[in-house]
Design a protein that fits this description.
single chain; 106 residues; 5 helices; mainly alpha
Length: 106
């Protein structure tokens, strides 16, 4: 959604804004939320920094592209919902899976 907002601020058309939001979402599907030690620090802060760069890139791609894309925003949102429903609960900010279990505190 940040990509869509940025595309709008940069003067994008509604179609470009939709495309930017879709690009931003598409490349985050299936991302786990597995904070080490139950704290929203590792890997969350770094992921947010990377996501901000991805949002800027997605907005630029939408604004400077030829307007064609294969995946609609509605399809990306539907897929995100389905992916989240299929994902094991231990990967949903519970600190019971992923990096939360595999990174040993010093």
């Amino acid at each position: 959604m940040a990509a869509g907002g940025l595309a709008a601020v940069m003067g994008g058309t509604p179609a470009q804004v939709e495309n930017a939001a879709e690009i931003g979402i598409e490349h985050n599907l299936g991302l786990t939320c597995d904070p080490v030690g139950g704290l929203v620090q590792i890997p969350c802060i770094e992921r947010n920094a990377i996501a901000s760069v991805k949002a800027i890139t997605a907005a630029r791609m939408a604004l400077f592209g030829d307007g064609t894309h294969h995946v609609s925003l509605d399809t990306a949102i539907k897929t995100m919902r389905e992916t989240g429903a299929d994902m094991a609960d231990k990967y949903k900010e519970t600190s019971r899976g992923g990096l939360a279990l595999n990174v040993v505190e010093c």
